[in-house]
């Protein structure tokens, strides 16, 4: 199977997350796989784009589009091997003939298992995360038939978060969210004993689906290639959850419930079955008939505290045998006759599903076992299963994280006492640097005033440099300095989760905010400030490192510190390693709304040294107010890890680096793409009065000024935010004209009727009165200008994109809209096409970018 899928080369050196995110010529094609070797890459690309059809393994033969029917039939025949029955037909021939061919697609579960077995821990985690967003069932126990081993995927599932809302008896909804690895819920397992005419997966999907629509959470025999024999996926255990939305008309169960599905017969996969009986509140056993052999197998479960239910579909003439053996099992398994359900072809399907739901609801309401994925992992270890998280690198990284986070009792106090450089000292230094910059361009200010500002800045930097890194920061630096690349990556992920858990509870947003995984688009009055305080995150530790580097560099520049006495000169190199491995790094500090220039320059210089000859860059940025889906758009388009509106997030602008495959870099015209997400910097205030607007307009100008391509993300029918309009007009004076794409994103679910999208000319025309002042700029003729009057905003030449809503239905059980995924792919293709055709600003190398950052 690995050879068939082209994955045999990834057994010694596993496929990495960076491998899957490379920009190649295939990134611009929406093509169907033409051979089994294309399937893993097609699956990864579609999964990255949250495409609901990612599990489709149909292969389209590579026939020229102008070929006639005879040619197509001839080519199809060439793909089939004929065996002469007169020849010696050996067992090997029969074995070969059973392998999937282009005519018989690979079973999607085989593809999933093969890909997971060929991926490193971090790609496995990304695959599982994207599958959860697509509402696919997630792999829990991964079989490896080649090595006869079973792996429990705790690490792979740890990055998956769950959000729900339950309607309490009175007043207000109760909200819940947390890691799938830690949240406890009653679990219900569905297994097969020998042969069953009923499909477990179809039954599970029916149980999980509301009355108005069927969800194909678990892949089943009725779907494409679902009926094909599984070559390596038997023994796979999958998990999915029902999560309530807080709406009684939609919620099947009032609280979260986990469902487990064992692929294959329990007699052949006894360790997995034991695990399910150890962790489930109830087990549903599907079988057609119970023989004496099966009776002995079931009798061995005597003494289990788990409840057992049988779903039978008896063959004609076997009824009496089934009843006799079941009557003997009832006292052994502590059952009664209500635990035996019969489903035959004449059974009412909807009524049967309601009965199964009623059993699940009854067991969940009664005192029962409630487990998390972490609890299941403990049980798996006792049964001899391997747990992916138990490797030494992962455990060492976890231990270091726990040493740091156990000292955090209150995140605000920790930042104040332990991360001292980024409080008032950095805020004051940033203000002085802004004043210095302003007087530099203000004509001829008194030299005395400039000297006074430089002296004040030097004093502040000396105060900062007088501190030593706190113990927690030293431990963090040790963690990211590990010689083991794997341990370094494990440490960063552990820190992200550990800091989220260590922080004190914060004001929670509304249920609607939690359920849509992003804040709702807010009005003019409340967009200026975030709904919650900024949580403690990895970016604060990196920000502290940046301030130590800034202070030291300032003193060296002023001749107050010999270069040979520097202690923090290696910090940019440490941070760069994280950027190259996919961690977003802060470009603009969200607290002070300023750029640590020396730190960012140091990072870019290190990047230039590291990339050497492959240093041609394109900068792509996304701007818009919070809640318009900017970060989700970038993450879906390129597989990035920008923080989304799932909850409290960092406020600053962050950057990530994408690598262009060497085979494609000449054609595309660049070696890397630097992606900038404006985060929560642009608040959307509607007047130009006040310092906040000035800061937002300046930051928008900075981000757009650095960019070759800028995507402006808009919500519903609102005008372009004033700060961004102001930046447009400023940039026209500089002659810097990025390629602009305006993206209208619907904030309603795709199944709901939406408001009519704006037309191009409406979008660029003169804005409403409330924001008119912000877009008027005196030109040389004394008149005013609006966006529609600028050459680079010609509505006939610019693209205005209309993106459907992310969700089809009501979260958290909503599926991702196929229209959203397809529209995002088309936007991505257009952006890359514009870069390749030179429609963006002239591509730059890193040294040119460093100079541009300094000038802007």
What would you note in describing this structure?
Keywords: Cell cycle, Cytoplasm, GTP-binding, Nucleotide-binding, Nucleus, Phosphoprotein. Belongs to the TRAFAC class dynamin-like GTPase superfamily. Very large inducible GTPase (VLIG) family. By secondary structure, this protein is of the alpha/beta class. It has three domains: 136-167 and 175-388, 3-Layer(aba) Sandwich (Rossmann fold); 391-504 and 536-568, no CATH class; 585-750 and 787-855, Rossmann fold, CATH 3.40.50.300. 41% of the residues lie in helices and 13% in strands. It contains 31 helices and 21 strands. The strands form four sheets. The chain has a nine-stranded mixed sheet, sandwiched between helices. β3 and β4 form a beta hairpin. α10 (292-299) packs parallel to α11, α21 crosses α23 (597-611) and α23 runs antiparallel to α31. Residues 72-97, 505-532, 750-758 and 766-784 have low confidence and may be disordered.
Key traits:
eight-stranded mixed sheet; alpha/beta; Rossmann fold; single chain; 856 residues; 21 strands
Layout of strands and helices, then pairs:
Layout lengths: L16 H5 L17 H10 L20 H10 L12 H7 L10 H10 L3 H13 L4 E7 L4 E4 L1 H5 L2 E6 L7 E6 L7 E6 L7 H9 L28 E6 L14 E9 L4 H10 L2 E6 L4 H8 L7 E6 L6 H14 L7 E3 L6 H17 L7 H10 L3 E2 L4 H14 L5 H8 L5 H17 L6 H19 L5 H10 L4 H18 L8 H5 L22 H20 L13 H10 L4 E4 L8 H15 L4 E8 L6 H9 L14 E7 L2 H7 L3 E6 L13 H16 L2 E7 L6 H13 L4 E7 L14 H5 L4 H4 L26 E5 L3 E2 L6 E2 L1 H19 L7 E2 H10 L1
Parallel strand pairs: 2-11, 5-7, 5-8, 8-9, 9-10, 13-15, 13-16, 16-17, 17-18
Antiparallel strand pairs: 1-2, 1-6, 3-4, 6-7, 12-14, 13-21, 14-15, 19-20
């Amino acid at each position: 199977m690995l050879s068939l899928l082209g994955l045999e080369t990834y057994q010694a050196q596993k496929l990495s997350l960076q491998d899957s995110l490379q920009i190649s010529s295939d990134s611009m094609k929406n093509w169907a796989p033409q051979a089994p070797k294309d399937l893993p890459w097609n699956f990864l690309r579609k999964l990255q784009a949250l495409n609901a059809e990612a599990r489709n393994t149909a292969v389209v033969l590579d026939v020229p589009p102008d070929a006639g029917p005879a040619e197509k039939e001839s080519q199809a025949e060439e793909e089939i091997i004929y065996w002469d029955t007169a020849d010696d037909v050996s067992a090997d021939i029969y074995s070969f003939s059973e392998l999937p061919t282009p005519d018989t697609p690979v079973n999607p579960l085989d593809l999933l298992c093969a890909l997971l077995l060929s991926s490193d821990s971090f790609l496995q985690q990304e695959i599982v995360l994207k599958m959860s967003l697509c509402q696919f069932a997630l792999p829990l126990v991964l079989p490896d038939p080649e090595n006869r081993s079973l792996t429990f995927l705790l690490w792979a599932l740890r990055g998956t978060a769950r959000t729900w809302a339950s309607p309490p008896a009175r007043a207000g909804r109760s909200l819940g969210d947390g890691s799938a690895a830690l949240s406890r819920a009653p679990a219900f397992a569905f297994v097969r004993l020998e042969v069953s005419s009923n499909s477990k997966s179809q039954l599970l999907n029916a149980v999980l689906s509301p009355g108005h629509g069927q969800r194909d959470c678990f892949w089943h025999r009725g779907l494409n290639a679902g009926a094909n024999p599984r070559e390596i996926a038997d023994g796979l255990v999958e998990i999915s959850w029902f999560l309530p939305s807080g709406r009684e008309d939609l919620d099947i169960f009032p609280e979260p419930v986990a469902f487990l599905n064992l692929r294959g017969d329990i007699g052949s996969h006894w360790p997995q079955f034991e695990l399910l009986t150890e962790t489930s509140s109830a087990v549903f056993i599907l079988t057609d008939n119970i023989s004496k052999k099966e009776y002995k197998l079931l009798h061995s479960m005597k003494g289990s505290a788990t409840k057992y239910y049988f779903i039978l579909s008896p063959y004609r003439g076997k009824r009496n045998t089934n009843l006799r053996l079941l009557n003997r099992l009832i006292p052994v398994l502590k059952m009664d006759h209500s635990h035996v359900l019969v489903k035959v072809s004449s059974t009412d399907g909807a009524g049967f599903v309601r009965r199964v739901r009623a059993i699940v609801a009854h067991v969940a309401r009664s005192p029962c076992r409630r487990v998390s994925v972490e609890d299941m992992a403990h049980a798996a270890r006792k049964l001899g299963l391997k747990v992916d998280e138990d490797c030494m690198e992962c455990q060492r990284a976890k231990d270091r994280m726990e040493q740091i986070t156990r000292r955090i009792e209150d995140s605000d106090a920790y930042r104040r006492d332990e991360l001292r450089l980024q409080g008032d000292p950095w805020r004051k230094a940033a203000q002085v640097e802004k004043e210095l910059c302003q007087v530099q361009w203000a004509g001829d200010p008194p030299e005395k005033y400039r000297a006074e500002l430089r002296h004040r800045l030097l004093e502040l930097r000396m105060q900062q440099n007088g501190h030593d890194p706190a113990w927690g920061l030293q431990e963090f630096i040790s963690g990211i300095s590990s010689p083991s690349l794997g341990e370094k990556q494990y440490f960063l992920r552990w820190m992200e989760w550990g800091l989220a858990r260590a922080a004190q509870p914060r004001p929670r947003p509304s249920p609607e905010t939690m359920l849509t995984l992003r804040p709702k688009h807010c009005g003019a009055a409340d967009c200026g400030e975030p709904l919650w305080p900024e949580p403690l995150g990895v970016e604060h530790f990196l920000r502290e490192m940046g301030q130590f580097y800034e202070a030291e560099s300032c003193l060296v520049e002023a001749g107050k510190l010999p270069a040979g006495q520097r202690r923090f000169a290696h910090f940019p190199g440490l941070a760069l390693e994280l950027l190259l491995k996919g961690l977003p790094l802060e470009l603009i500090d969200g607290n002070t709304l300023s750029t640590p220039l020396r730190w960012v320059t140091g990072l870019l210089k290190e990047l230039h040294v590291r990339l050497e000859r492959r240093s041609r860059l394109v900068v792509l940025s996304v701007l818009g107010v919070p809640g318009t889906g900017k970060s989700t758009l970038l993450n879906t388009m390129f597989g990035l890890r920008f923080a989304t509106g799932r909850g409290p997030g960092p406020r600053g602008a962050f950057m990530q680096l994408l690598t262009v495959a060497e085979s494609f870099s000449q054609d595309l015209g660049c070696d890397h793409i630097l992606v900038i997400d404006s985060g929560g910097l642009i608040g959307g205030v509607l007047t130009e009065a006040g310092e906040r607007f000035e800061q937002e307009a300046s930051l928008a100008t900075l981000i757009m000024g650095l960019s070759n391509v800028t995507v402006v993300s808009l919500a519903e029918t609102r005008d372009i935010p004033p700060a961004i309009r102001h930046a447009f007009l400023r940039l026209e004076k500089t002659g810097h004209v990025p390629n602009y794409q305006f993206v209208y994103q619907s904030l309603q679910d795709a199944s709901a009727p939406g408001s009519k999208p704006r037309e191009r000319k409406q979008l660029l025309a003169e804005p409403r009165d409330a924001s008119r002042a912000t877009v008027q700029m005196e030109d040389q003729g004394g008149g005013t200008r609006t966006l529609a009057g600028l050459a680079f905003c010609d509505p006939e030449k610019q693209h205005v994109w209309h993106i459907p809503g992310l969700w089809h239905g009501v979260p958290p059980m909503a599926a991702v809209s196929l229209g959203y995924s397809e529209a995002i792919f088309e936007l991505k293709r257009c952006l890359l096409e514009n870069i390749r055709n030179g429609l963006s600003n002239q591509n730059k190398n890193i040294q040119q970018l460093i100079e541009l950052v300094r000038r802007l």
